[in-house]
Design brief:
The chain has 193 residues and is α+β, with helices and mostly antiparallel strands. Helices cover 36% and strands 30% of the residues. It has three domains: 1-30, no CATH class; 40-129 and 176-191, no CATH class; 130-174. Strand 7 and strand 8 (113-116) form a beta hairpin. The relative contact order is 0.18.
Length: 193
Amino acid sequence: MKGVYTQMKRLFQNFLLPAICLTLAAPAIKAIDLPARGQQIVVRTIDSIESRDGRAGQTYRASLEQPLIVDGRQVAPRGADATLRIQEVEEAGRIKGTANLKLVVSEVRMNGVMQSVTTEPVAMESKGKGKSTAVKTGVGAGIGAALGAIFGGGKGAAIGAASGGAAGATVSAVMKGPEIKIPSESVLTFQVQ
């Protein structure tokens, strides 16, 4: 009987007591409240973002411009870290001339922990160069027609106009359209999905 008592005592001292102490000493894990669907997250960019250099999945640093409040409690103060991610990017082309960029907030530091969030993308599109292409084509056609008329008469004017127009369109096709640039310190507003 004394041997069983000794074994039970050792079992308690070596295994059960430490397990009980660790359980009691473990900090309670706080539940992190996430923002509700439709809630706005306003950020200020730290890094500049450009469609020319960006690729889908690339991340950029930002900080909260306004505190994040969930159920009446502040879960992230103004200035808390945030991460922006490019969801989709299309560089400006030579003919189409517009760049497209879609950004989302992927993480926010809430209660001291980087937490994943899902937001609606903010979509941006640069201005196209359609008018620029038309002007270059028209100017090229006019100059070509004038030169053709001087050197070849009526038929030369038609050939010159066609050649000049093609030259103007070619110049436009060689030059790319404007890219999207979001400078550092820009304020962007997102909505939680």
